[in-house]
Design goal:
The protein is an alpha/beta fold and 390 residues long. Helix content is 22%, strand content 30%. The strands form 4 sheets. The chain has an 8-stranded mixed sheet, sandwiched between helices. The chain has a 6-stranded mixed sheet with strand order 12-11-10-13-14-15, with helices on one face. Helix 2 runs parallel beside helix 10. The chain is globular and about 65 Å long.
Amino acid sequence: MSDVVAITAIAAGGEGVGRLADGRAVFVARTAPGERIRLREGVKLHKTFARGELGEIVAPGTTRVTAPCPHYVQDRCGGCQLQHVTYEAQLAAKRAIVGDALRRIAKLEVEDPEIVEAVEEWRYRAKVSLAVKGGRGRSRAVGLHQYDRPGSVFDLKDCHIADFKLMVLWRELKQRLDLLPAQLTHLTLRLDREGRRHVIAESTGEPWRDPAALRAALPGGESVICWWQPVDGAARVVARSWAVEQLGDVRGAVVWDLYGGIGDTAVELAERGAQVVSVDADEKAIDWARQRAAPRPVRFIAGKAEDVVPTLPEPSAVVVNPPRAGLHWNVTLRLTGQPVGRLIYVSGDPATLARDLHRLSATYRVTAVRAFDLFPQTAHVETVAVMEAA
C-alpha cells in the first residue's frame, strides 16, 4: 500500500493514529502527530480499523526527535513506545488518552485532565524485568522483546530509563549467567528503598540452590540479595500520595485500601490517623507490608478483594488500586450497593478506569481527575479519580 497517511494523534499503547482513504483508523507504531507517512505493504485490515508499519516519513512532525537509546531504533525495543517524540508531546498525548477514555467510555463531560510531570525523564526505574530465551550461560539471550515481534528477545546492553546502579549490576551479572538457575524464564533486577540490589530469578524446574555462588562472583556481591521464585510468582508495588491527600481528614475513620500491595498507601493513611484495612492477593506483598513500621496498627489481609470485602468493617472511605483489568464486578457491586462518602480510584489503564467509573456513576460523581507521568518514554500513564457519593 502506497497511500500517504496523516498522523493526527497518539493512541493508548503509544501508536500514532491516522485515517486510510476508506475512513478506517490506522494505527502505526513509532509515528508522531503532525507528520505524513507512507505505509509499508501488508496493512492488516479489520472491520473498523487497521494496523500498519511505517515505511517512509514523507514529512516529519515538529515533535519528532532522535531517540537516544540505540536499542529503541536498532533492536525495535518494545520497552519504550515514545522516545521518538518530545517529552512535552508525550505529556500532551497522555492527557488526551485519559480525557478521551473518560468522555467516550465513562460518558463524563470533562476536559483532558491536568498531568503531573515526572521528576526525571531518564534513569528513573528502580526495577527492570528481563525476558530469557535459549539455553544456559552465554548461549542465552537475556533482554527485552521487540515491539513488533513479542516472541523475540534481544540481548540488553543498557536501558536508558533504568537507574544507573541497576545497569552496573546488569553488566556484572551478564558475564555470570551460568550461575543462575538452569531453566531461567525471567530475570528481575530491583533497587529497594534502602538502595540494596536484588536479583530475582524466575524459573521452571528445580529451585535456585546456590545463589551464594553468584553473590561471591559479583563485585560487592555481599550486598546483593538473591531471590528465587517459581513462574507466576511476581509481586506488585504501588504508591499514591496525592490520592491519600484527596481523602482529607481521616482521623479515626475506617478506610479500606484495596489492592494495597506492600502497604505504601496503608502506611500513609495510618500516619493521618485512619483505621486502615489493607487487602492484596499477593501473599509476598502482604508479608512485606506486615513488617513495615506504622504509627498505628494496620490490618493487612492476604486475599482477593472480591472475596474479602463482605467480611470487612464498614468504611468511611475507600482507596482502590486494581490491576489493569480493573475492579472485579463483586467489588463494584459492594461499592455501589453500600456507598461510601469518598472513593479514590488509582489506575494504570485509562480504558478500564473509564469503564469502572461508568459503572460506579449510578452512585458516585467524579469530583477530580489527575494524571501522573510515572514512566516517561513509555505509553503508560497513571490516573487518580476522586469520587463522592451522589
